[in-house]
Amino acid sequence: MFELFEKYLRSKAAFTAEEMQQIEAVTTIKRLRKRQFLLQEGEVWTYNAFVSKGCLRTYSVDTKGAEHILTFAVENWWIGDLQSLASGLPARFNIDAIEDSVVLLIRKEEFDRLCQVIPALQQLVNALLHRSFLAQQNRIHTTISHSAEEKYRLFLQNFPEFARRIPQHMVASYLGMTTETLSRIRRNLV
Amino acid sequence: MFELFEKYLRSKAAFTAEEMQQIEAVTTIKRLRKRQFLLQEGEVWTYNAFVSKGCLRTYSVDTKGAEHILTFAVENWWIGDLQSLASGLPARFNIDAIEDSVVLLIRKEEFDRLCQVIPALQQLVNALLHRSFLAQQNRIHTTISHSAEEKYRLFLQNFPEFARRIPQHMVASYLGMTTETLSRIRRNLV
DNA sequence: CGATTCTTTGAAAACAGTCAATCTGTGTGG
DNA sequence: CCACACAGATTGACTGTTTTCAAAGAATCG
């Protein structure tokens, strides 16, 4: 499974064979079955995680039991609770597998150490953070400026992959509406 | 006005006198009157901008003429269109002054060059991006998981400063609701 | 097949937006 | 200094959208 990660890394920057070995040395593989937790609210998240197969989600559960999905992650995406990672505090979010999945884990301390000695890795992380920032900004913008139907249209445009793989009630949760509303929107689209 | 910026920088990291001079050498001061544009939709944004006095907003205008505010920035905040800055494409957003303001500008090329030679500056930028990422994630989470009234409550909690300085119709726009709705929410709060 | 999850539907209620009017305070020009 | 214009906030009546609750139908999985 490390090969997929290696392929991803090489597509983003140039790494020497030795650097790649250093990375592989600290990478562990975790297989998750559908519905299995990678992180549960209240635990402390201490990894950087790369999805090499499958699909996961990050979400919270409110006082009424309703789930609110913050992110999805499929192959070649990173996932984790940066808030908990940075602060060392218990996570406010859950992460679980939507499909049977494989994630690669690197402990924070080891990842940070590698970033010190492998400039390409540090740059990759910075670039990733930068792109994520812009993606989040876009999401905020569409969220505050469009109707439920328009949000769904944009979601289909931007993430056709997600729309295919992810159950509708989760898409609804991601978009901040109920599953009934999304169902009715879909009825009116055709 | 550079002194305020210097104070901010020194509060975040250690800079030598020479480094500080290098920064000052590329910094220009721009004074803006209330309502004056710093950036208009369609222009290319090529700066990093630091607010040393006043208050500004980043917003878009939709096809119906409605404004949607993405961010506010007061003293010691950064502002700009990262999307346009990174891509070189015309900005989708406007930035203008809500109060008479003073911003410090550093051209992108010069800023990037300084980041190469001043590690503390590069680190500051990374830390800032990291914090902004988390802040945006929080905003997304509250936006998709709370009612209009709860969003306003949380806004008051998180940004009491903004609530004091910023006209209500702009707060409403930032929260993704109409000014009438916010007005009615406030009536029911007391 | 039976159980569970997922999606759809309907009816009623809650919520938020629209439009139009009024009220307030501020600042500007005469 | 006043009159006026203008930006901002509020209100009411109405419309439209979204949620809620309850139920039933479809799809999936062991």
UniProtKB/TrEMBL annotation, chains A, B:
InterPro entries (alphabetical): cNMP-bd_dom, cNMP-bd_dom_sf, RmlC-like_jellyroll
Residue intervals of the Cyclic nucleotide-binding domain: 1-114
Entries under SUPFAM superfamilies matching the protein: cAMP-binding domain-like (SSF51206)
Annotated protein name in UniProt: Crp/Fnr family transcriptional regulator
SMART domains associated with the record: cNMP
